[in-house]
């Protein structure tokens, strides 16, 4: 049983119970303004999105390392400058009604959050080899862009990116992302001074959630699309559910 720290219990947690995965889940092209539109439509108050760096160090939203799946561009995102990226279509792959949707910058996302009163979980999703600079610039950017508003929750699967974010903006809350929670999770979250632990719901159990929460951390479970499963996780004490089905989980 992990005990001995009390990191998150006293840390502010001004977030709702539900967060829309990749802005609007499966109802819109992921990580775009159309996702924010869907969020507003379904009354969601928080979005998760993936942030990375262009070749010329502009922070923008994209999940994959490459452009091919969700835009009409090709190859590694890190090889393209922002003027090249913003010219791409990031909506057509999801349906004709989304043709012309552009990739948003982190600043665009901050503006939408402010306009619609939506909180953010910014997942730092560095392109390979760019972990530290992406963590640093996302944290600095988030600090400046969200000034005076609910602080965005920063998360990452990359230890190095989250460590860089901690060093660049210690005041911003951090959550370590795992798929399956490793045995040494407490050491990792302690080093990063996290307020939350984020894990795939598939590998969570009631005792594990209890153990994590007993350490003072909040728990986010992703990606939960079945309302019955979401209710069970909430009963176990999971603090936040990240979902693609913002139309089903309300
Ligand atoms: O933050 C939860 C979730 O977004 C992590 O997985 O691959 O969808 O970014 P992924
Ligand atoms: Mg993500």
UniProtKB/TrEMBL annotation:
<dbReference type="InterPro" id="IPR030395">
    <property type="entry name" value="GP_PDE_dom"/>
</dbReference>
<keyword id="KW-0378">Hydrolase</keyword>
<feature type="domain" description="GP-PDE">
    <location>
        <begin position="16"/>
        <end position="250"/>
    </location>
</feature>
<dbReference type="Pfam" id="PF03009">
    <property type="entry name" value="GDPD"/>
</dbReference>
<dbReference type="InterPro" id="IPR017946">
    <property type="entry name" value="PLC-like_Pdiesterase_TIM-brl"/>
</dbReference>
<dbReference type="GO" id="GO:0008889">
    <property type="term" value="F:glycerophosphodiester phosphodiesterase activity"/>
</dbReference>
<protein>
    <submittedName>
        <fullName>Glycerophosphodiester phosphodiesterase</fullName>
        <ecNumber>3.1.4.46</ecNumber>
    </submittedName>
</protein>
């Amino acid at each position: 049983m992990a005990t001995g720290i009390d990191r998150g219990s006293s840390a502010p947690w001004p977030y709702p119970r539900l967060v829309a995965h990749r802005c609007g889940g499966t109802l819109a092209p992921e990580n775009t303004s159309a996702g924010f539109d869907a969020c507003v439509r379904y009354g969601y108050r928080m979005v998760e999105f993936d942030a990375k760096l262009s070749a010329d160090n502009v922070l923008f939203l994209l999940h994959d390392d490459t452009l091919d799946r969700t835009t009409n561009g090709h190859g590694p995102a890190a090889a393209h400058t922002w003027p090249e990226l913003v010219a791409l279509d990031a909506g057509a792959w999801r349906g004709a009604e989304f043709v012309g949707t552009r990739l948003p910058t982190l600043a665009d996302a901050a503006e939408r959050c402010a306009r619609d009163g939506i909180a953010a979980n910014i997942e730092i999703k560095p392109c390979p080899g760019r972990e530290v600079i992406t963590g640093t610039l996302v944290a600095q950017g988030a600090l400046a862009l969200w000034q005076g508003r609910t602080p965005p929750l920063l998360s990452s699967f990359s230890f190095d990116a989250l460590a860089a974010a901690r060093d660049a903006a210690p005041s911003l809350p951090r959550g370590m992302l795992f798929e399956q929670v490793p045995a040494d999770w407490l050491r990792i979250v302690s080093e990063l001074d996290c307020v939350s632990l984020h894990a795939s719901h598939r590998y969570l159990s009631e005792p594990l959630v209890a153990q994590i929460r007993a350490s003072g951390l909040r728990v986010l479970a992703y990606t939960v699309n079945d309302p019955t499963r979401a209710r069970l996780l909430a009963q176990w004490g999971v603090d936040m559910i990240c979902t693609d089905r913002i139309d089903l989980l309300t």
